[in-house]
Amino acid sequence: MKLANLFSNSLIALILFAQGIAAQNERPQKNDITVVDGYKVKKLVTKSFAGYSTNMGYLRYFPLKTGFIVMSEDETSITFFDWNLSERWKITSRSGNISPIQFLGNKLLYIDGVTLNLITDEGNFLWTKQRNEYHIYSVTLKGKYIFTTINPLSKMPFVILESSTGNEILSIDDIGYTRDVSDEDIFIAQQNKKLKIYSIHRKSLKHTINLNHFKRISKIKLSSNGKLIAISGHSINKDKYFIEIYSENGSLIWISDQYATIVNPIYFSKNSRYLIIGSKEIVRLLDLNKNILLWSYNLKRRVGRVASFENNMLFLNTSKYSTSFFLNSEKQINKVTKHKEKVLIREISDSSEKKGMLLYEFHKKNRAIVKNQVIEDLN
Question: What is the pTM of this model?
Answer without folding.
Answer: 0.75
